[in-house]
């Protein structure tokens, strides 16, 4: 039998829990179910802040440039 399957449909697109964008959920995405490392770290950071009440969030917010729309 010389007809290997082209793609074992193990990959699919899910919604990234951090940015609500499309995320590849499969062996090639190390950050699944997140779309990227950044989103994973962001989510873990938010979780940690919520759990432990770290003041780090306020500090990073103050460090950000003001929004001008
Ligand atoms: Zn994301």
Automatic annotation (TrEMBL):
<dbReference type="Pfam" id="PF03884">
    <property type="entry name" value="YacG"/>
</dbReference>
<comment type="subunit">
    <text>Interacts with GyrB.</text>
</comment>
<keyword id="KW-0862">Zinc</keyword>
<protein>
    <recommendedName>
        <fullName>DNA gyrase inhibitor YacG</fullName>
    </recommendedName>
</protein>
<keyword id="KW-0479">Metal-binding</keyword>
<feature type="binding site">
    <location>
        <position position="19"/>
    </location>
    <ligand>
        <name>Zn(2+)</name>
    </ligand>
</feature>
<feature type="binding site">
    <location>
        <position position="39"/>
    </location>
    <ligand>
        <name>Zn(2+)</name>
    </ligand>
</feature>
<comment type="function">
    <text>Inhibits all the catalytic activities of DNA gyrase by preventing its interaction with DNA. Acts by binding directly to the C-terminal domain of GyrB, which probably disrupts DNA binding by the gyrase.</text>
</comment>
<dbReference type="InterPro" id="IPR005584">
    <property type="entry name" value="DNA_gyrase_inhibitor_YacG"/>
</dbReference>
<dbReference type="InterPro" id="IPR013088">
    <property type="entry name" value="Znf_NHR/GATA"/>
</dbReference>
<feature type="binding site">
    <location>
        <position position="16"/>
    </location>
    <ligand>
        <name>Zn(2+)</name>
    </ligand>
</feature>
<comment type="similarity">
    <text>Belongs to the DNA gyrase inhibitor YacG family.</text>
</comment>
<feature type="binding site">
    <location>
        <position position="35"/>
    </location>
    <ligand>
        <name>Zn(2+)</name>
    </ligand>
</feature>
């Amino acid at each position: 039998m010389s007809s290997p399957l082209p793609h074992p449909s193990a990959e699919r697109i899910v919604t990234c829990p951090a940015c609500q964008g499309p995320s590849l959920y499969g062996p090639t995405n190390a950050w699944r179910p997140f779309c990227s490392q950044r989103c994973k770290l962001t989510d873990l950071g938010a979780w940690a802040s919520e759990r432990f009440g770290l003041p780090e969030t306020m500090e990073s917010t103050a460090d950000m440039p003001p929004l001008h729309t």
